[in-house]
Structure formats: C-alpha cells, structure tokens
Design brief:
Layout (H helix, E strand, L loop, with lengths): L1 H18 L15 E9 L4 E2 L7 E7 H10 L16 E6 L2 E6 L3 E9 L4 E3 L5
Antiparallel strand pairs: 1-2, 1-3, 3-6, 4-5, 5-6, 6-7
C-alpha cells in the first residue's frame, strides 16, 4: 500500500513538473526536477492503441538521479533467470509495479504505469 502511495505522489509530481516546465521554483517543498518521458495508450503494453476516454493508461520512464536512488532502494537484483536481458552489464530490480534497470550504456531508468480511469498503479514496462 505504501508503494502505491509513493508512486501516486511521484505521478502527481511528474504531472506538476510537466505543467511547470520552463519555470524554476526554488524551495517549493524541496522539489527537484524530474527527467524521463511518458506515453499514453489503451489496451495493454504489448498491444498498445491510442488512448480513449474510457481506456487511458500512462507509462512513465524516470531517469537520472531519481532512477538511481529508486534502483538502490527497492531491493536486490532479480535472478538472471527472471531478468529481461542476459547481457552481462544488465541489472534489474522490481518491487510491485515498479521496475528499475541499470546498464552501463544507458545508466539508470525506472518504469511505472498508471491506469487513469481507476487511479491504480500498474506495470509500466515489458520485458
């Protein structure tokens, strides 16, 4: 339950940061800017379609310092058998609907999804 609250707060922060793009408000609740991207869709991640009024989901990818901090806080790496890649420089960690990876080439990134209609978190990445 706490992960969902943390993710919900993170999603709200992402939307707030997107809305305030270009504006620098120093000291606003000690907030820091986010790095990453998102995409909206309907259906499933595997068979995405354009979002509709009744079916809208969002997948967020967070990068940079926040992704590194989250990666370091969510627990141990998944086993090599359960990882999405067998590359020797690939590391993956999961907790609930939060998936974080590290590669030497791309650095840290974390993925989380949101079902806009229900407000519930969901996975934001596929293997």
């Amino acid at each position: 339950m706490n992960l969902r609250r943390v993710c919900g707060v993170g999603v709200l922060a992402l939307f707030s940061a997107a809305h305030a793009a270009g504006k620098k408000e120093e000291g606003r609740y000690l907030a820091k800017p986010l790095q990453g991207d998102y995409y909206a869709y309907s259906g499933t991640l595997a068979e995405m379609a354009p979002p509709t009024l009744k079916d809208r989901k969002v997948s967020f990818m967070l990068t940079g310092r926040l992704a590194k901090d989250m990666f370091n806080q969510i627990g141990p790496d998944v086993t090599k058998e359960d990882a999405c890649s067998s590359s020797p420089d690939y590391r993956e960690r999961r907790r609930g609907d939060l998936d974080c990876i590290f590669t030497k080439e791309d650095g840290y990134s974390c993925y989380i999804g949101l079902n806009v209609a229900t407000g519930k978190s969901r996975s934001g990445a596929l293997c």
